[in-house]
Amino acid sequence: MTMNDRVLLVIPCFRESGRIEPFLDSLFDELGSIATVSVTVVDDGSGASEQEKMHSIVEARRARWPGLQPLMALDKNLGKGGAIYAGWAACGNHDWLAFVDADGSCPAYEVARLLREATQQPGTALFASRVCMLGKRIKRDFHRHLIGRVYATIVSEVLQIHVYDSQCGLKLVPTAAFEKVRPLLRVFGFAFDVELLCALFDSGVLVQEAPIDWHETGGGKVRLVRDSLRMFRDVLAVRRRRRSAEWRAFCGLADGGDPPPGQR
Ligand SMILES: Nc1nc2c(ncn2[C@@H]2O[C@H](COP(=O)(O)OP(=O)(O)O)[C@@H](O)[C@H]2O)c(=O)[nH]1
Ligand SMILES: [Mg+2]
C-alpha cells in the first residue's frame, strides 16, 4: 500500500508494556512499509521501570521499522487525551493526526483501512465506531458494552450531536482542522474525544463515523464507575463551555441558544 498523505499515528500508553508488543508487531505488518506513516508510542507517566521496558520494546523494532519514532516518555501522567495531544504536538509536517489504543482491541488491519479511507476524504475527520451490524465483528465484554452504550447515548443527547460511539479508540483528524480547534481544548482525560468532537463540529469541520471490527483485549484499565463519573462530569463541563461567548465566538457561531443539532 502506498499513501501520499503523511500520517502521524500516536499510541497512548499507560502501563502497557504487557499488552503492546503483539499489537505493535501487527501494526508493523500493516504499516511498516508505508514511508508516509510515522508511529509514536507515548508513555503517559507510567513510572521509571515501566518506561524502561517500553523504551526497550520500541527500540527493538526501530531498526527494521523506519517510521517508528523513539518512545516519547512523559514525566507525569496526563491522561489519555493529554498523552495523545503531547504526541500530536510533535507533528512536524504530517497531514493527518491519528491515535489508536495500545491494547490491540482495534485490529491493525482496521487502522490501515481507515488511514486509507481518511486520506481519500481530505478535510474530513474520521472517528471509528463500534457498531454491531451485519458484516462487522464486534467482541466486547457485556458490562463494558452496556455502560459504553449508556454513556454514548447520554453524550449524544446532552451535546445534541448525533454521534453513535464517541469513545472508540481509533480516530483520525486532518492536521489543519486540529490546529484550528486546538486553543479550545481543555479536557485531557478519557472524555477528551467528546470535547474534540464538539470543537471540530462547532467549527464546521466534517466528522464522519466509520464502523470497524473490534476485538476487546482483556486487561483494560478504565475503571467503569470512577472513570465513567469523571467522564460524565467532563461532558457536562464541555456542554457549559460550548454555551460560553468565548467558545461561540471562537467557532464563529451566532450568539444565544444551543449550537445547531446535526452536522453543519
Ligand atoms: N487507564 C488509562 N489509560 C490511559 C491513560 N493514558 C493513556 N491511556 C491509554 O488509553 C487507552 C485505552 O485504555 P484501555 O485500558 O485499553 O481502556 P479500556 O479498554 O476501555 O478499559 C490505552 O491505550 C491506554 O494505555 C491513563 O492515564 N489511564
Ligand atoms: Mg482497551
Mean pLDDT: 93
Q: Can you summarize the main beta sheet?
A: 7 strands, mixed
Q: What radius of gyration results from the CA coordinates?
A: 18 Å
Give the topology string: H per helix, E per strand: EHEHEHEHEEHEHHEEHH
Structure description:
The chain has 264 residues and is α/β, with parallel strands linked by helices. The protein has a single domain, classed as Spore Coat Polysaccharide Biosynthesis Protein SpsA, Chain A, CATH 3.90.550. Helices cover 42% and strands 16% of the residues. It has nine helices and nine strands. The protein has helices at residues 20-31, 48-62, 80-89, 108-119, 142-159, 175-181, 192-202, 224-242, 245-251; strands at residues 7-13, 37-44, 72-74, 96-100, 125-129, 138-139, 170-174, 207-211, 214-215. It has a seven-stranded mixed sheet with strand order 3-2-1-4-7-5-8, sandwiched between helices. It has a two-stranded parallel ribbon with strand order 6-9. Helix 7 (192-202) runs parallel beside helix 8. The longest helix is centred in the C-terminal third of the chain and has 19 residues, at 224-242. It is globular and about 55 Å long. The two termini are 33 Å apart. The structure holds guanosine-5'-diphosphate and magnesium ion. Guanosine-5'-diphosphate (GDP) binds next to strand 1 and helix 3.
